[in-house]
Amino acid sequence: MELLKAFGVDWKLVLANLINFALLVFILYKIGYKPILNFVNDRTKKIEDGIKNAAKSQEALAQAQAQQTQIIEESQKQAQQIINQAKDTASKQANEILEKTKQEAEVLLTKTQSELELQRAQMLKEAKKDITDLVLLTSEKILDKKVDDQTDRDFVNGLVGTLKTTKSA
C-alpha cells in the first residue's frame, strides 16, 4: 500500500471510482444497451423480412409472367382454332352455294331445253298445218274443184311425206 501512497493513489478513491464505473456500466447496460440491441435486432428482423418478401415478390412475379405467357399462348391457339373453323365453315358454305347454283343451272338448262323442244314441235305442227293449207289451196286451184275433207287430208299427208323424204335426202 505504501507503493500506492508513493504514487499518490488513494485506495478509497479508486474503490469509489470502480463502484461508480460498475454502476455506470450497469445503468448503461440496462438503459442504453438493451434498447439499442433490441432496436438493432428489430431492424435486422425487418431487413430479413423485407428480403424474404422481395424474394416472394420476385417468385410471384415470375409465376405471374409464366401464367401470362401461358394465357397468351392459349388465347392464340383458340383464336387460330376459331379462324380455322370460320374458314372451314366459309368453304363449306361456298361449296354448298356452288353446288346449289350448279343444280339450279342444270334444272334451268333442262327446263329451257324442254321448252325449246316443245316450241320446236309446236312450230313443226304449225308448219305442217300451214303447208297442208297451202297444198290444199294449191290443189284446189290446180284441180279447180273441192274434194271432201278425208280425201283432202290423205292427199296432203302424202305430199308432206314426199316433202320430208326429199328434204332429208
Automatic annotation (TrEMBL):
Record's bilayer topology term: Single-pass membrane protein
Keyword set, alphabetical order: ATP synthesis, Cell membrane, CF(0), Coiled coil, Hydrogen ion transport, Ion transport, Membrane, Transmembrane, Transmembrane helix, Transport
Residues passing through the membrane, by range: 12-29
Coiled coil residues, start to end: 47-122
Pfam entry (one): ATP-synt_B
Compartments it resides in: Cell membrane; Endomembrane system
SUPFAM superfamilies in the cross-refs: F1F0 ATP synthase subunit B, membrane domain (SSF81573)
One example GO MF annotation: proton-transporting ATP synthase activity, rotational mechanism
Keyword Ion transport belongs to the record: yes
GO annotations of cellular component type: endomembrane system; plasma membrane; proton-transporting ATP synthase complex
CDD domains associated with the record: ATP-synt_Fo_b
Subunit structure: F-type ATPases have 2 components, F(1) - the catalytic core - and F(0) - the membrane proton channel. F(1) has five subunits: alpha(3), beta(3), gamma(1), delta(1), epsilon(1). F(0) has three main subunits: a(1), b(2) and c(10-14). The alpha and beta chains form an alternating ring which encloses part of the gamma chain. F(1) is attached to F(0) by a central stalk formed by the gamma and epsilon chains, while a peripheral stalk is formed by the delta and b chains.
Family the entry assigns: Belongs to the ATPase B chain family.
Function: F(1)F(0) ATP synthase produces ATP from ADP in the presence of a proton or sodium gradient. F-type ATPases consist of two structural domains, F(1) containing the extramembraneous catalytic core and F(0) containing the membrane proton channel, linked together by a central stalk and a peripheral stalk. During catalysis, ATP synthesis in the catalytic domain of F(1) is coupled via a rotary mechanism of the central stalk subunits to proton translocation.
Protein name from the UniProt record: ATP synthase subunit b
